[in-house]
Amino acid sequence: MTANRFKGIIFDIDGTLSSTNELIFASFNHVAEKYLKKKLSDEEIIALFGPPEDIIIEKLFPEVHAKVKEDYYRYYEENHGQVNLYEGLFPLLEKLKKNGVILGIFTGKGRVASEITLRELDIYSYFSLLISGDDVVKHKPSGEGIRMFLDKFHLLPDDVLMIGDAPPDILAARETGVHIASVVWDSYAKDEVIAMNPDYIFYTAEELQQFIYVGDRN
After folding, report:
1. What average pLDDT does the segment 36-57 reach?
2. Cα distance between residue 178 and residue 171, in whole Å
3. Using CB atoms within 10 A as the burial measure, which of 50, 105, 121, 157 is most buried?
């Protein structure tokens, strides 16, 4: 098959497009050490995931959350040089965009951090819609963000692929009936993702591209 398989593709950001997980851990620990005088483990930080950064910070630092947010985002942006777009994804995005596939983002990240990452990696312009954790009432694993994408572009679920690295991506896709491709090249929950038996699993961007343009490779 030479044509693309889907009319619309939705990407997660962290662990899917970009190697931002370590920067997220470092950013939370930057403010935790400064304001709480302690360091959080990766597992403790992962347990906080779901709502966007602002909500997490307001819960952890209720009395100084405004200042903590400033420090968090400043650190996140100033240290973004350590983050990379995963190998093979830039040409994939270029090819999809050139072939008229509607590209979107659905992430649990807040809008501020999402825009920092997409702009720093110079891929912001590839996406027709950014749905961040600030833009939904119900966060992942709810499929609200996917439904927003479907509604905006008048697409049927069977014409859309969700690409993510974590269990909430799978659950959101199943709730809305879109196809789900789990990428595990940098997933913090690789074993759990595999055990959930998503529609497709990919270990490299090359495998993903071959599937989108050639055929099933699970």
Report:
1. 94
2. 10
3. 105
- Alpha-carbon span 172 to 6, nearest angstrom: 18
pTM exceeds 0.85 for this model: yes
> Which three-class secondary structure state does DSSP give residue 18?
strand
pLDDT for res 214: 52
The pLDDT of residue 105 is above 50 = yes
Q: Which helix or strand (DSSP H or E) is residue 71 part of?
A: helix 65-78
Nearest to 184 by CA among 171, 167, 161: 167
What are the structure tokens assigned to 160, written together? 């859309």
Q: How many other CB atoms are there within 10 angstroms of residue 183's CB atom?
A: 29
Q: If 0-12 CB within 10 Å is exposed, 13-18 middle and 19+ buried, where does residue 210 land?
A: middle
Strand ranges inside 96-193, DSSP E:
102-106, 129-131, 160-164, 179-183
Q: How far is CA 137 from CA 131, 160, 163, 173, 187, in A?
A: 11, 22, 21, 17, 25
Residue 215 has pLDDT above 50, yes or no: no
The two structure tokens encoding residue 29: 């620990």
Alpha-carbon span 55 to 75, nearest angstrom: 18
Instruction: Give the integer Cα–Cα distance in Å for 84 and 149.
Output: 26
Per residue in 113-148, pLDDT (tens digit) is 999 999 999 999 999 999 999 999 999 999 999 999
CB 53 within 8 Å of CB 114:
no
